[in-house]
């Protein structure tokens, strides 16, 4: 199902992200990278990397399963996953794999769309999510169903406290999260 959704939306992925978030997804990703604090020679794994628009030539693209990474234990300085964790089949396996491939001083950072908890704003966001986003998907991408899946998958994902607990259960020691735009987006790091 998820593979079909992403195949369907790939050609309009970047423009739809800009439209759905009013461009905020770019600021959220920039903030995530600044928290990663990249350094020369850093070995960094970005899982669910999107279209790669704006990628750097020094990147090596590898297609694989987040639940069974083809990298050595303790081999990465950083691991990021932006807007992809809710689409994996086994969240616990993905987190365990992230922990396995990271060096002891490595950083895990996750950016995800989330549950809005601000009264008043929650109702507005729910209306936008369930009415506007699927309609945008239909008009721009010709695919209402995939964007309906998107908003429903966000609501099915565990709330921030539960997800933070899952990260800690995978072995990460210092789990912090930050709500962005009233909880529309959450940044989680160890």
Automatic annotation (TrEMBL):
GO CC aspect terms: mitochondrion
> By its UniProt entry, which Gene3D superfamilies does this protein fall under?
Vaccinia Virus protein VP39 (3.40.50.150)
- UniProtKB keywords: Methyltransferase, S-adenosyl-L-methionine, Transferase
- Per its UniProt record, what InterPro entries does this chain match? SAM-dependent_MTases_sf, UbiE/COQ5_MeTrFase, UbiE/COQ5_MeTrFase_CS
On whether DNA-binding is a keyword of this UniProt record, the answer is: no
Molecular function GO terms recorded: 2-methoxy-6-polyprenyl-1,4-benzoquinol methyltransferase activity
This protein's source sits in the domain of life called: Eukaryota
A Gene Ontology annotation in the biological process aspect, one of them, is: methylation
Q: What is the name of this protein? A: 2-methoxy-6-polyprenyl-1,4-benzoquinol methylase, mitochondrial
Source organism (scientific name): Camellia sinensis var. sinensis (China tea)
């Amino acid at each position: 199902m998820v593979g079909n959704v992403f195949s369907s939306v790939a050609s309009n992925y970047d423009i739809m992200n800009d439209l759905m978030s009013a461009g905020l997804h770019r600021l959220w990703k920039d903030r995530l990278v600044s928290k990663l604090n990249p350094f020369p020679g850093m070995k960094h794994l970005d899982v669910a990397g999107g279209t790669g628009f704006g990628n750097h030539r020094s990147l090596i693209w590898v297609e694989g399963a987040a639940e069974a990474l083809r990298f050595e234990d303790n081999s990465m300085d950083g691991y990021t996953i932006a807007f992809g964790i809710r689409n994996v089949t086994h969240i616990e396996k993905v987190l365990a794999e992230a922990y396995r491939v990271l060096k002891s001083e490595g950083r895990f950072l996750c950016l995800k769309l989330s549950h809005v908890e601000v009264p008043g704003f929650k109702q507005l966001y729910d209306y936008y999510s369930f009415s506007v986003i699927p309609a945008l998907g239909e008009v721009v991408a010709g695919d209402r169903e995939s964007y309906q899946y998107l908003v429903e998958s966000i609501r099915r994902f565990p709330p921030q406290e539960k997800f933070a607990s899952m990260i800690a259960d995978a072995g990460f020691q210092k789990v912090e999260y930050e709500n962005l735009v009233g909880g529309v987006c959450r940044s989680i790091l160890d």
